[in-house]
Amino acid sequence: MSPHAGSELKECIDQCLACYASCEATMMHCLGLGGHHASTTHIRALTDCSKLCLTSADFMLRGSEQHMALCALCAEACGRCADECEAMEGADAVMLKCAEQCRRCAEACERMVATRV
Amino acid sequence: MSPHAGSELKECIDQCLACYASCEATMMHCLGLGGHHASTTHIRALTDCSKLCLTSADFMLRGSEQHMALCALCAEACGRCADECEAMEGADAVMLKCAEQCRRCAEACERMVATRV
Amino acid sequence: MSPHAGSELKECIDQCLACYASCEATMMHCLGLGGHHASTTHIRALTDCSKLCLTSADFMLRGSEQHMALCALCAEACGRCADECEAMEGADAVMLKCAEQCRRCAEACERMVATRV
Amino acid sequence: MSPHAGSELKECIDQCLACYASCEATMMHCLGLGGHHASTTHIRALTDCSKLCLTSADFMLRGSEQHMALCALCAEACGRCADECEAMEGADAVMLKCAEQCRRCAEACERMVATRV
Fold this sequence. Notes:
The structure is a homotetramer. Chain A has four helices and no strands. By secondary structure, the first copy, chain A, is mainly alpha-helical. In chain A, helix 1 runs antiparallel to helix 4 and helix 3 runs antiparallel to helix 4. The first copy, chain A, is elongated.
């Protein structure tokens, strides 16, 4: 099992699952808006973030060795997704809220990587 | 999108994600205990429940038509997993807590199915 | 384990995995085309099909009781996705090839359900 | 999209999906054997490998930037899983066949990483 304090691990799992849910809902919202909101780049950023959040949570829940490498990739995907959502012309409340969730998840994942022992 | 009230849908998604996490952690716990706790039947019940929880949450988040059919299957898997955890000789606190989570998730999924309009 | 002949089960698992891959690649292709190809309805049909293909394959691989209920849902999603791809104005070779794969997968899933004993 | 030749990418996706299927089936087989075959270490190695194979295939299908980082993690998980299967006392034909599939998948993933441009 991970050398992390249980509460830190639990917080990161919770953030990953919340971020997965946020990205999936935002993706449908953006497809509904259409145009550049539904571009390959934007939908892919949301999808990559969603998938890495789920995979990271999964590896943390199993106490798998590779969970820190996945948290590092997840933090990267969360950062890129937040950038995408914030930078988009016409970013609305749903997208900005998703960006905030991505930032919180990225921070939680980075804390997991930083506390590596 | 679903005809369900937003709060009911959100509650069901949250229960599904919490149940997924509970089943994954309990699976590792049971493999650690070994013997009949690590039997095919028990681990499969936990895995099936975990996978259907994630898939149901996913379809609810996308507002997909088939989310109610998946909630019905998920309620079934949750019920079976809870039965499995409770009936097992030597069921400990982790397993009983997982069974409780499965029951809560089954109820939330059944409410989604019952309110079908 | 399933009462199905091994070869029939294997064929269905293979079709599900091939259909998952086809839907994911076609989704990116359609987002690239933009316009109605990137509509919520179209992308959701591809996503639902992709997810149910993976989940059905997963339950078949584990020999889980609920694999036939999932194959039934998968056949439904495959049929809807094929209809969507074929009916779309401006459907190109990628979309028509995806529709063909969806039809093959739907048939394999229906055979699993039909041979229920 | 990836700078890889299409055929190399396709080969890696196919190996990942085949390895996912092999690990899931072998997991059920090992739980059925019980004892050290059903140990946390062994089942976790199979599960980690299965999940990373699916995630890597998924990122390759979407042409996502992080697919090479995931292929690197996948190759690692495949190698560990193959070692686990081969080293186990009482490894039978199913386990040895799974180890072979893991080796093939690890090689395909390593080729993806090596050809990075």
